[in-house]
Amino acid sequence: MTDASLVAAPAVSEGWALNVVDGWTVPGFTHVRDLGSGSSGRVVLAVDDLTQTKVAIKYLDRRLRGDDAFLSDFRTTAQRLSQLEDPNVVDFYDFVETPEGAAVVMERVNGVSMRWMLAAQGPTGPLAALAMLGGILAGLAAGHDRGVVHGAVRPANVIVDGAGNGRLTDFGLAPAASIAQSGPAYAAPELWNGAPASVATDLYAATAIFFECLTGRPPFSARSQSGLAKAHREAAIPVEEVPGPLRDLIARGLAKDPAERPKTAADMLGAVEEAAVAAYGLSWEAQGRSRLTELAAQTAERPEPKPSRITTPRGNPISQPVRSSRSRLVAALVAGVVIIGGVLGAAVVHASQDEDAPRPDPSPAGSGSPAPASPGATPGATLADKVSKATAETPGASFSYRRSGCCGGPAWAQGSFRIVQGAAPSYSMTVSASTKALRKRTRAVLVGGSAYVQAGKRWQNASLAGGGRGYAALAGQVRAGSAAGNVAALLQATTSLQEAGGIYRGTVPVSALTQSPELTQLASAVKAKQVQFALRLDRNGLPVQIRIKVGQGGRSQLLQTSYSNWGKAGSINAPQ
């Protein structure tokens, strides 16, 4: 098995030894089974002891743990990527680092890797290939917008889930010096010349995968790495091997000169959509995703191929990379561990709007158990007061949000909000969901009881009263689930509160949630009797991350919200 076994996989080595890395395991999780290993480390399936959520944990190997430059980059990008929420990126929850070891905790995805699919099925056909390329580019665009380059785009790092989504893993798990050698079939010419990974190299690699989906093989081959490097630099682009309407996409994406490739992933995605509509009609994406879903199901029934062996610059054999990543399971799920960075890094980082965001203090608010409350008060009452005061004095922030679980399906949003005394907070966001009608990322503004949804150049006004459907209702659900007021309400009502490593974990009876009618309503929908949460605060008592689980088992929802840029959100008004 490879690292891409974040995907659903049959049990292997049920009796595997727990000494994953020098005897160290991430506290707060129960290991279920070994999922295999790859060039960056060993992956296990685990269950979060707090929420009973299945996750994948990758224990980084000694090579990465001993690379100071890699670790420095990895930590630096963590804060930026903590805000990355996108349906085409596998959620990265935490980077956990102690003197005994280092690991990343990430979303466990039900699906198969593109490497597995291509090995089992061969060419996917043009519609599925276009849908796959669209998913990769959407995921890259989300990362690039945060100033993060992937650096290791290859079939092993693309997971096809059960809905036919192509989802990227492993932003930044390739040390800069080994990017070309560890993924030679997808490495742009400039990487072989020693240039750093960039937006242009990510687009080149995405195009190479697209070519492989169309033809069953990468665009260039050779018997040695030096020969492959020469082919990438000098060989003619084999555009004649793909359907005519798609040749221009291949020619531009595999251009030898990075300046001749599309400038951004969003630009290339626009070109893909144009070419697809012109060649295959308006339903191309639905048909392509349907075909990917079918191929993924067929692939899952076949054995996964063993990773190929390649050679590092020092001559050491390593597995063809198959990794996995993305932002956010609140570090709370890792009790008693020093959390450094919090989120997956990347090989190349540029300045971003989050650079000045408040950073979690090494010993955050209440780094020990919360101060004793007055007689009769709940365990979190003192901390709740601190949070309420901090958010009242700093009433606006940026946020990113993800909802998963039953009852409505996954949803994503990011934007900013401003707390309004005596009224619902105002929100400006981009929002989408997994359903076909809500899949397109759309802008929405919420002011009071009204929602404004952008349709082209116009804004449509809808009342939030009485629920409803569509983007307006979805935006209202995001506001209810991500509201900063939920933090104080949960702390105020909790009957048990534990703190470890600056992370607060608690359980709240639904009957005690009188200050949060939104969570009460959600609990009622899934017939839950209690709510669990994991929370991280900064030194001032402002929320940084919160993860809320409502319900149990198949009747549960997970709400994850990250906050940054407190105090920098301006006023939010109804669009004209």
TrEMBL record:
Q: What class of enzyme is it?
A: transferase
- Residue ranges spanning the membrane: these are 329-349
Keyword check for RNA-binding, yes or no. Answer: no
Q: Is Translocase a UniProt keyword of this protein?
A: no
Q: Which UniProt keywords apply?
A: ATP-binding, Kinase, Membrane, Nucleotide-binding, Serine/threonine-protein kinase, Transferase, Transmembrane, Transmembrane helix
The family database entries (InterPro entries) matched by this protein are listed as:
Kinase-like_dom_sf, Prot_kinase_dom, Protein_kinase_ATP_BS
| Protein kinase domain ranges (all copies) | 29-277
Compositional bias of type Low complexity: which residue ranges? Answer: 364-381
A molecular-function term among this protein's GO annotations: ATP binding
- Biased composition, class Polar residues, residue ranges: 309-323
Q: Which SUPFAM superfamilies match?
A: Protein kinase-like (PK-like) (SSF56112)
Q: Which CDD domains match?
A: STKc_PknB_like
Which intervals of the chain are annotated as region Disordered?
295-323, 352-389
Pfam families the UniProt entry points to? Pkinase
What does the entry list as the binding residues for ATP?
Answer: 58
Record-listed E.C. numbers:
2.7.11.1
Identify this protein by name: non-specific serine/threonine protein kinase
Organism (species): Actinomadura rudentiformis
Which taxonomic lineage does the organism of this UniProt entry have? Bacteria, Bacillati, Actinomycetota, Actinomycetes, Streptosporangiales
